[in-house]
Amino acid sequence: MNDILCKLLEVVKHNPTQTAEAIAEKLSITRQSASRKLKGWVEDNLLTVSGRGRSTRYELVEKVDTFTFSLSNELDEFQVYTQTLDSKLNGLSKNVLEIFQYGFTEMFNNAIDHSNGTEIVVEIRQTPISTFVSITDNGLGIFEKIQKAFDLIDIRQSIFELSKGKLTTDKKNHSGEGIFFSSKIFDFFCINSKGWAFVHDAGVIDVMYEHDIEYIEGTKVMFELLHSSTKRTKDVFDQFAMPDEYAFATTVVPVNLAKHEGEFLMSRSQAKRLVARFEHFQKVILDFQGVTSIGQGFADQLFRVYQNDHPNVQLFVINATNDIKDMIQRTGYQIK
Length: 336
Known about the structure:
Blueprint: H1 3-14, H2 19-27, H3 31-43, E1 47-50, E2 57-60, E3 63-70, H4 77-84, H5 94-114, E4 119-126, E5 130-137, H6 142-150, H7 155-164, H8 178-185, E6 188-193, E7 196-201, E8 207-210, E9 219-226, H9 233-239, E10 250-254, H10 268-274, E11 283-287, H11 296-309, E12 314-318, H12 322-330
Parallel strand pairs: 10-11, 11-12
Antiparallel strand pairs: 1-2, 3-4, 4-5, 5-9, 6-7, 6-9, 7-8
């Protein structure tokens, strides 16, 4: 499938209704010409169509496969990958294959080693332009397990710590990097457990959801990638390594996740929660997207007290409002 057709099918995906108008605008053609193209894509089994007139709805053809595995010592994540997903990616570019192999095997291995469940269900949803995968276990639930293992104040703190990377309840066998890198490399990545979810959507602020989602007793990890993606695993790994090194030394921290619903980032205690485990990294990029202001105590604890106590940790600020920058600079910290 050529790149132009992929782009047009993306337009259909995001415009299931009034689709002909959207295609016409994209190609600068008449609505009638766009309708003929849509009819051809339906005939080519790329789209389905339902309804009539203003109620006409186009959707990408989707193929769904489900596989269930009993958890045992013999279960191997790479063998499961070859049995389930590998053959469905035939013909895709090398970089896309590498991303799926990395993400699938990392997330499936997490379910094997950490879930304490009895089964894992893999669901694969494919359209002509993308592949969506979910891996669901019936175990303890990732956020609750992290909260108990690290004695955190609540589930929200578990999600926040997980988003930083290098967090694992089994340091002997795991580095805590798999979720961090997988969340950055896919177009869409979500972890859902017991009414809570962490979502990383490419180009969109990281989000933490409570309750307004499908309830999963164990853990459900979901990820999706466009078949036309030009991302490479190496580029993502390099982005978070220090120059001339291969170690995972850089993290991007979405500061908005430290702000519980209805809260403002004002206190020193909130800053202390934010900086937990920063010392595991050489470079911490604080992303203030979605945060409109911070308090003096919060800023002082983070940019003066913590930085003085940890001079080897470099703090960087991105997406900060002018008000936030002013408050940071009042502490004497020079924004990099």
